[in-house]
Amino acid sequence: MNDIEQYEFDRSGYLVIKNLITPEQAADMLKAVDKLEAHAAKHVHLPPRKLSCWGSEHHYNEEMNYHAYGEQASGKTLVIEDFFNTDPVFDCLVDHEKTMAYIRRIVQGPIRINNSEIRIRYTGNASGTHMGGPIDHKYRYNYNENGIDCMMVRMVYFLQPVTNEQGAFCVVPGTHKTNRRSPYDSNPDNEPGMIGLEVEAGDAILFTEHLRHGGLTNRSERTRKTLHVGYGPAWMMSQNIATMDEPQFITDAALSRYTDAQRKLFRIM
Ligand SMILES: O=C(O)CCC(=O)C(=O)O
User: Fold this and answer.
1) 269: pLDDT strictly greater than 60
2) pLDDT classification of 122: cutoffs 50, 70, 90
3) In a domain? residue 269
4) Which residues span the domain enclosing 48?
5) Rounded distance, CA 45 to CA 76, Å?
6) How do strand 147-148 and strand 213-215 relate by DSSP bridges?
7) pLDDT of residue 129
8) Sign of the CA dihedral 8, 239, 33, 221?
9) Facing residues of 127 across strands?
10) Averaged over 212-241, what is the pLDDT?
11) Tally of domains within the chain
């Protein structure tokens, strides 16, 4: 993360990073996401159910070891959490060298992955705007004598190009530093100051969870599919919705494939 990127991240709360993953990685992971989408769409409403501490209900899939919620339908989102358990094709994102070079610059001390989700957004769907302003300590943005000091941050990996029309990830730049709650509602299409971030396959967006963000309405016929990976200080538990504030849900099978450095991103060793 060079000086310009650090300046821009501190000023705006996000960065668009070109070509963070290779075209081959994007294509291979998209194939796996397509298979998982078909699987989750069939199972998402079935037992067993997992109730999160936020009161939301999720399907736990015993065969593939993911949690899912939402729906495969027009206007809806289907979310598949804990995707690292499902297919070794995603192992390349755990301790991904280029990603970790960014994360180490903005999260101080030992780091852990705290969120992993595939977000599948159908025609007509928007992701409601959230965050910005005064905020819970888990998502706080800070700056101290050692530089940028974020709590939770996310890297969103794009497996396909996404335009504004196709439901781009969107942000209100600078709102990680605002002192007042937003007076606007959660419709991302209406908020003044909201901008869509258009990307190509292989690009990624890094942002502090403190930043006000969401996803513009997908007005196209194409389903938007993205991979979201959250990082934070090692003390932070899972920030996946199904397992909120529980230990990260990673199977022994996945851990056994990993190097020590990869395992350390999920477990204190
Ligand atoms: O990508 C989107 O549509 C919104 C994602 C989001 O809110 C998040 O990753 O925190």
Assistant:
1) no
2) very high
3) no
4) 3-264
5) 14
6) unpaired
7) 97
8) negative
9) 215
10) 97
11) 1
User: Which residues lie below 8 Å from residue 236, measured CB to CB, with a gap of 6+?
Assistant: 112, 114, 138, 151, 152
- Closest listed residue to residue 217, CA positions, set 119, 122, 79: 122
Which amino acid appears at position 137 of this protein? Answer: H
Query: What is the C-alpha separation between 153 and 90, in angstroms, rounded?
Result: 19
Rounded to 5°, the CA angle 128-80-186 comes to 5
Report, as an integer, the average pLDDT of 164-173. 98
| CA distances for 246 relative to 21, 23, 61, 266, angstroms | 30, 34, 18, 12
Q: Fill in the DSSP letter of residue 93.
A: G
Quick one: pLDDT band at residue 170, thresholds 50, 70, 90? very high
Structure token pair of residue 264:
């350390």
> Residue 224: CB within 6 Å of ligand 1?
no
Q: The domain that contains 81 carries what CATH number? A: 2.60.120.620
Which protein residue's CA is at the shortest distance from atom 5 of ligand 1?
214
Look at residue 69 and tell me if it is in a domain: yes
Tell me the pLDDT tens digit for each residue of 76-89.
999 999 999 999 99
Amino acid at 122: Y
Mean predicted lDDT score pLDDT of the chain: 96
CB of residue 169 inside a 6 A radius of ligand 1: yes
**Residue 13 main-chain phi, psi, to 5 deg:** 95, 0
* Beta-sheet pairing, 143-144 with 169-171: unpaired
pLDDT confidence of residue 54: 87
Q: Ligand 1, from 169, 209, 217, 218: best to mutate by most atoms within 8 Å of Cβ? A: 169
